[in-house]
Amino acid sequence: MAKIRTVTLCADDYGLSYGVSAGILEALRAGRLSAVSVLTNGPRWPAMGTELLRGGFDADIGLHFNLTLGGPLSVMPLFAPNGRFPEISEVVRGAMRKKLPLKEIRAEIDRQIDRFEAVMGRPPDFVDGHQHVQALPGIREALFDALAERKLEGKCWLRDSGDAPHRIFWRGGPVKKALIVRGLSSGFRRMARRRGFVVNDGFAGYSDFNPGQDYARQFAGFLSAPGRRHLIMCHPGHVDEDLRAQDPVTVTREQELAFLLSPRFAEMLESRRFILGRLSVAAGQCNTTAEKSIAAR
C-alpha cells in the first residue's frame, strides 16, 4: 500500500478584500486548508485578522509580505514616492541591478510584521511574499535580518518559491512562470537554511488564472512530484467590488474555492493518499497535532 504523504495547502491574499477573506474563512472552517498567508498593509487587515484569530483554526498563519499591491504602511520616498508600491517588473529589475532602497524595504518588513503581531498577538508562523518578492536578491537578506533580530530562527518557516526543474516539467501547466520564479529565487533555500530558517521542500500552485481551465485538473498536477515538505499555494475567495478594484485575478478565485469545498477535492486527496498538514509541525516548530484527514468530511 502506498505511503500516506502530508501536503501543506496555503491560501494566499487573506485580507485583500472582504470577499477573498470570507471565502478563505469558509475553506478553513471546512478543514480544507492548512496554512493562510495574510496581507497586513491594507485597510481590511485589522478586522479580518480578528476574524481569523477568533476562529482558532488548525492552520499555520503567516505574513504575505507585500511590496507590489497598494501602498506602504509609512513613507518610502525612494521605493514608493507617490505612496503606492511599484509594479512587480520594476521591483525585479531593481533587485537584479542591486538598486533597491533596502533600508526602506527593511523598515517596511518590520512594519508589516508589527501589524501582524498587533492583531494576532504573536509572530507569524511563516513568511512568504506577494508575487514572491520575499525571494528576490536583497529583499531576502533584509527579511532574514528582520526575522533574526526578532529571534525567529527555527520558529518561523519561509516559503521557497522555486522547485527542482524535473518536478516543474513533470507537473506541466505554466512551466515558464515556474521556471522564471525558480531563477529569481536561486540561492534562497541555501541562504535561508544557513541562517537557521526552515523552508519547504517542493512547491506548486502556479496558475495562469484562466477561467476556462479546469482547476481540479490543475490541482491534480500540483500533487504530482511532491517534495518531502510539499507546499501548494492557492488563491480561493469570493469576488467583490473591492477585489475588482485592486486585482485582475477574480473569477478563478471563486472556481478554486468551489473545488476546495467540493467532495471532489477530498476524494482526490484520499485517492492519492495525501492528508493536509501544517509545515510548522513537520518542521518541529509547534506541538499542535498537524495532520488531519479530510477524506471523511
Automatic annotation (TrEMBL):
SUPFAM superfamilies: Glycoside hydrolase/deacetylase
Cofactor: Mg(2+)
Protein keywords: Carbohydrate metabolism, Hydrolase, Magnesium, Metal-binding
GO biological process, one term: carbohydrate metabolic process
Coiled coil: none
Gene Ontology molecular function: deacetylase activity; hydrolase activity; metal ion binding
Pfam families, alphabetized: YdjC (PF04794)
Residues spanning the membrane: none
Protein name: ChbG/HpnK family deacetylase
Species, as recorded: Methylocystis heyeri
